[in-house]
Design goal:
alpha/beta, TIM Barrel, 8-stranded mixed β-barrel, 10 helices, about 20% strand, globular, binds guanosine-5'-monophosphate, binds manganese (II) ion, binds sodium ion, GGDEF-domain containing protein
Length: about 260
């Protein structure tokens, strides 16, 4: 189809770029990590979002090279913010489960870290369980290899995919990210039963995360009220428009100094 054909040329044409969004402490709003988010600026279609082109890339086999590009590009930017003095600021990069299926994925990650001069401990890979990761040998080997390398693993969009609370102990995770649909319903719903339910759900996630020694990040936090609710529930990190939208590298310094 048309988008697929155009996506095949996007990389070579330089139409892909990255934006970065801070993940901050709750309370305090101190940035601890920057998540790299891919963007596609097409000459005719305009800005195409990753929720559109990532699934296309996954279907047509472009995700491997797109994912490699995103990692390489993001590590280059991270090397620059580290050189500018932000050494404690980690980098989070989204990876498709299909990338974890690649036999040489871990070697690729190690080579890109080496090339950028960024330590493995400064990198977190975010994976969304859009497919069931269980029982896939290559995926468990990749995940184990990343752990051995010292790269962190985050479970993205938690609560919406295949992953259940009982699964959190099966992957060597450091971080779980609560999907923004739950955060939105904390305060944004007219239905008190729904907001009570979402509160209970988040409290349960906080309890499980504490037991498993996982960091919990709430996504899509837009208002101070949501921030207060999440803090009261025991959530200690958050990401969202409350702190900053995603911005290109050129605007990072301004965003970081506004947050500090
Ligand atoms: O930033 P935005 O809300 O448009 O991102 C939408 C979704 O696309 C997010 O869930 C994010 O995890 C995913 N995404 C963004 N960039 C990448 C990428 O480089 N690779 C993969 N696999 N997913 C990405
Ligand atoms: O990996 P993930 O899909 O969670 O990536 C975050 C996505 O959420 C990005 O596409 C980003 O543009 C979007 N986003 C970031 N902050 C907010 C927010 O506060 N509210 C909403 N609705 N979307 C957000
Ligand atoms: Mn993500
Ligand atoms: Na997400």
């Amino acid at each position: 189809q048309l988008l697929e054909r155009e996506l095949r040329h996007a990389q070579a044409r330089g139409e892909l770029f990255l934006e970065f969004q801070p993940i901050c402490t709750l309370p305090g709003g101190r940035p601890v990590c920057l998540e790299a988010l891919s963007r596609w600026q097409h000459a005719e279609f305009g800005l195409v979002g990753p929720e559109v082109f990532i699934p296309i890339a996954e279907e047509c086999g472009l995700i491997t090279s797109l994912g490699e590009w995103a990692l390489q590009e993001a590590l280059g930017v991270a090397a620059r913010w580290r050189a500018a003095g932000f050494r404690e600021l980690r980098l989070a990069v989204n990876v498709s489960p299909l990338q974890l299926m690649q036999p040489h994925f871990v070697e690729m990650v190690a080579a890109e870290l080496e090339r950028a001069g960024v330590p493995a401990s400064a990198l977190e890979l975010e994976v969304t369980e859009g497919i069931d990761l269980r029982g896939r040998l290559q995926i468990s080997q990749s995940v184990e290899g990343l752990r051995a390398l010292g790269v962190g693993l985050s479970l993205d969009d938690f609560g919406t995919g295949f992953a259940s609370l009982s699964r959190l102990n099966d992957l060597p995770l450091q971080v779980v990210k609560i999907d923004r649909v739950f955060v939105a319903d904390l305060t944004g719903t007219e239905d008190p039963a729904r907001s009570r339910y979402v509160r209970t759900l988040i409290a349960a996630m906080v309890a499980v995360a504490a037991t498993l020694r996982l960091k919990l990040v709430a996504e899509g936090v837009e208002t101070p009220e949501q921030g207060r609710e999440l803090l009261a529930l025991g959530c200690t990190q958050a990401q969202g428009f409350l702190f900053a939208p995603s911005v290109p590298e050129e605007e990072l310094l301004a965003v970081l100094s506004a947050l500090n």
